[in-house]
């Protein structure tokens, strides 16, 4: 079911002018029931002027009367022929002027860390064109030398949930195609919530790579034997060879 225009203002009017329950108003306006209750308490929408849904051809008075008489009755948005075909147009996401200069950096970040995303997905996430994405992929962009990869979520160009959804869609597509992926690629295809819930895998530091076969356990008996074999007497340790001058002095 469609939602009324100016939903919060419509909820304010219904709270002030009817006895309809908060649940009925919430279902009609698409708001949460607690938010409607906050409007009644004066904690939400303070200063918002009520928007009459009857005068603005969104509800009928008969429908409101039925809802007041029956708490289970659901309000229905009145059909408005003038609103037919006015659905939101599909196209590139609008990017504010203050953030457009950072958009190439966000594209570079997506291309670098999520190469599985298609040009169409990147275009929807940050609001750009496919030729721009292609030039950054091929490093032929006119400003590629001065660009730095920056997370588009940190720049406010898209939401983390939108990025996760796009990554999950790419993961499902690659899984359906049966492409073999490395461990690093699989980690990139996880959403933020999934990656945070995963347990950290133990990794061997690069400084001791190749020494995996050596035991790191506490073998006290073996260590004690080795220590006893390697003990050196202090006198013998400092018993340095005598120089030729000392040998001549000792001769009678």
Automatic annotation (TrEMBL):
| Annotated Acidic residues bias | 218-227
Alphabetized Pfam families for the sequence: TrcR
Origin: domain of life: Bacteria
Q: Which InterPro entries match?
A: TrcR (IPR010421)
Name under which the protein is recorded:
Cytoplasmic protein
Its source organism is Pseudooceanicola atlanticus
Stretches the record annotates as Disordered: 175-252
């Amino acid at each position: 079911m469609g939602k009324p225009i100016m939903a919060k203002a419509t909820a304010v009017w219904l709270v002030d002018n009817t006895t309809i329950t908060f649940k009925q108003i919430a279902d009609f306006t698409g708001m949460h029931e607690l938010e409607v209750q906050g409007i009644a308490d004066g904690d939400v929408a303070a200063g918002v002027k009520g928007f009459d849904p009857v005068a603005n051809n969104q509800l009928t008075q008969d429908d409101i009367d039925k809802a007041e008489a029956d708490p289970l009755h659901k309000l229905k948005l009145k059909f408005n022929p003038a609103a037919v075909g006015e659905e939101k147009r599909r196209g590139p996401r609008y990017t504010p002027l203050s953030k457009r200069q950072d958009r190439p950096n966000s594209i570079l970040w997506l291309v670098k860390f999520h190469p599985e995303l298609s040009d169409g997905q990147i275009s929807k996430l940050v609001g750009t064109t496919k030729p721009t994405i292609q030039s950054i992929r091929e490093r032929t962009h006119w400003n590629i030398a001065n660009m730095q990869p920056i997370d588009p979520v940190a720049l406010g160009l898209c939401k983390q949930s939108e990025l996760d959804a796009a990554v999950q869609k790419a993961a499902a597509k690659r899984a359906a195609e049966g492409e073999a992926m490395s461990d690093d690629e699989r980690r990139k295809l996880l959403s933020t919530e999934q990656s945070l819930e995963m347990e950290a895998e133990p990794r061997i530091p690069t400084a001791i790579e190749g020494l995996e076969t050596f035991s790191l356990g506490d073998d006290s008996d073996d260590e004690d034997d080795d220590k006893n074999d390697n003990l050196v007497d202090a006198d013998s340790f400092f018993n340095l060879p005598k120089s030729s001058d000392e040998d001549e002095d000792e001769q009678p």
